[in-house]
C-alpha cells in the first residue's frame, strides 16, 4: 500500500511551506509540519501490523531545486523510516503559477512534468534521500525508457523505478519487458491527454493507441 503525500494533496499541504501557514503544533518549524504525516504512518502501521509493505510518496522537489528543499526531503525520509514506512517513493513539482481567489493572489505549484523537463528529473534528490535512510527508495518522474530505468538502478541512484505514462501508452508494458521486447514499446509523446482526463474526472486515455496482445 502507498500513502500519497506529494503533489499537494492533503498530507503534502502540511509538509510544504507553500501551503502550511498554521501556527499550532502542525505548523511552524520541524517537527510541526511533519507531525500529521508521521501520525498517519504510525496509525497505519499499528492497524495493519508488520506484514504489509507500506510506501509513502513525497515531493523531493517543490518548484525550485535548492539545497534547502533537498535537506527538507531527506529529513522527511528519515522521519518516515522511523515512523514505520518500508519504502519511500520520490516524486515532486517543478513549477509554480499564480492563482487568484477572493481578491487574493496565491502561489500554486503544478505537479506535471513537461517536455521542458529532462528525463529522470527527480533522480538526484532520490539519491540524496537514499543516502540518508536504510529503507529502499523508489524514483519516478519522466522515466520513459526502460534503458534509463536500468541505468538509474545500476548506478545505485535508487532501489526501484516507477513507470507511469509508459504504462498508459503500453497496456502490456511489463510483459514486453519480461519478453525482451522493449524495442517494440510505443513512446509517450507528452501530449498530456492523460492529465486532462484527470482534471476532467473522466477515464484515462492517451493520444496514441496502446498495444493489445
Describe what is shown at a glance.
The chain is of the alpha/beta class and 213 residues long. It has helices at 10-15, 32-48, 67-83, 123-132, 146-154, 165-169, 173-178, 193-200, and strands spanning 2-5, 55-62, 87-93, 95-101, 104-110, 137-139, 160-161.
Keywords:
213 residues, alpha/beta, TIM Barrel, five-stranded parallel beta sheet, two-stranded antiparallel sheet, 8 helices, 18% strand, globular
Written description of the protein model:
The chain is built from eight helices and seven strands, in the order βααβαβββαβαβααα. It is an alpha/beta fold and 213 residues long. It folds into two domains: 2-162, Aldolase class I (TIM Barrel); 163-213, no CATH class. The protein has a five-stranded parallel beta sheet with strand order 1-2-3-6-7. It has a two-stranded antiparallel sheet with strand order 4-5.
Set down the secondary structure blueprint.
Layout: E1 2-5, H1 10-15, H2 32-48, E2 55-62, H3 67-83, E3 87-93, E4 95-101, E5 104-110, H4 123-132, E6 137-139, H5 146-154, E7 160-161, H6 165-169, H7 173-178, H8 193-200
Parallel strand pairs: 1-2, 2-3, 3-6, 6-7
Antiparallel strand pairs: 4-5
Helix pairs in contact: 2-3, 3-4
